[in-house]
Design a protein that fits this description.
The chain is mostly helical and 444 residues long. The protein is built from 16 helices and 6 strands. It folds into 2 domains: 100 residues, Orthogonal Bundle (DNA polymerase, domain 1); 240 residues, hpI Integrase, Chain A (Orthogonal Bundle). The strands form 2 sheets. It has a 3-stranded antiparallel β-sheet with strand order 1-2-3, covered by helices on one side. Strands 4-5-6 form a 3-stranded antiparallel β-sheet, with no helix packed on it. Strand 1 and strand 2 form a beta hairpin. Helix 6 packs antiparallel against helix 7, helix 6 crosses helix 11 and helix 7 packs across helix 12.
Length: 444
Amino acid sequence: MTATLPAVPRKAIGHVEPHEWADGRTVTYRARVRVNGKRHRFNLGMNHEGWSMERARVEMERIMGQIERGTWEPPSRARPVVMDTGEETLHVTASRWWQKRRDELAPKTKVDYEWRLAHLLRHLAHDLTAEIDVARVDELREGLRKWRSERGKKLSPRSINMVLDALAAILDEAVEYGILDTNPARGKRRRMRVPTPSRSFLEPGMVVSLLDAASERERELLADENVPNERILLGRRALLATLCLAGPRITELTEVGSGALDLHAGGLRLGKKTAAGRDRHLELSAYLLGELRSHLASIPAGLRKRGAKLPLFPTLTGGRHEPSNVRTRILADAVERANEARGKEGRMLLPDKVTPHTLRRTFASLSFFAGRDLRFVMGQLGHDSPSMTLSVYAQAMKRSQVDEALVWRLMAFPDEAERELNSPRFGPSSSAKPLSAERDRMVE
């Protein structure tokens, strides 16, 4: 009689399979396990619930370990699979945090956070979240400080702090999930010391020099047949005048269409940028309206036929200019020319580094010289906090000599009458209120 040997059980196997939904945004991660001759298939979770391929693979490793020890039980449909947070890596924690927040962010903000996460995960992707402590955060900060790109470029203290801020936000959620008791990435001692940036702005006479230099350069480009039309921005002078005298962001101004400008009402409607700047409406001075009126009249008739869809500051081909082009070419060239002219006349040169944000601060300083209300300036700038405006106002207060007649010519609205210029400061009311009074009103 021949004995029949018992069949050798097959080795347990398991793998993860992602299932993409038809909406193009949802992914369900499923586990397939074969053990003791039986097949089991069950859902682990969706990406909107914080699941990712990394987390699913970690969970699968945990399941296979339980199968080897003989302690695994197939999950019932009523009992969801719970992740052992003690085994969760920072990559998994960060993925869950990112999945929840990415759809809430503007496109540019999303790119910024992706940059932060890339630096963060380069150092901590495989660290267990539950084991991250203050010492590990300090090691991360030191690693970021020593990091160099392929071109040898290093991260600034401010950039390092931005990465650490992202880590702190991720670990806040880890505390809420009970993975950590406290957040080791919080606190000033975990951050790099950032040098205080110079908060420069242009004096009233410098603004005029900048605008004259922009006009000169535009005339040269239009006369040069070798310069491609798409490289020529129409209204260089008017664009810089708007940045100096109305306070918009450079991205807002390059994106706005000519249909957002109302010369009769004296206003410019901007698109949505921040919670404080939604549907912002800029009030324009009589001087600035004159600059914009001249600019619109100089646009070729063929382009004007496009109507409201034409960018307010188009190229000769009707396209939009990138903010980087305005920063690195238009503004930089105007500053260089203005300094050259002022140097020959023996006048003070413009600050060493003039950026579009310098021109926003210039608007705030001119507003102080003109006696404008703090709330009005904040509304023009799109700020919900008075800190930036107050800091510029504090600097402007130190000026003992200001060409008040020039300030009023630049900043007066069309419906404002001429003012007596015999007071230290002037404006729509008899005199400007002291900075301390403005600050007290904001606190109230």
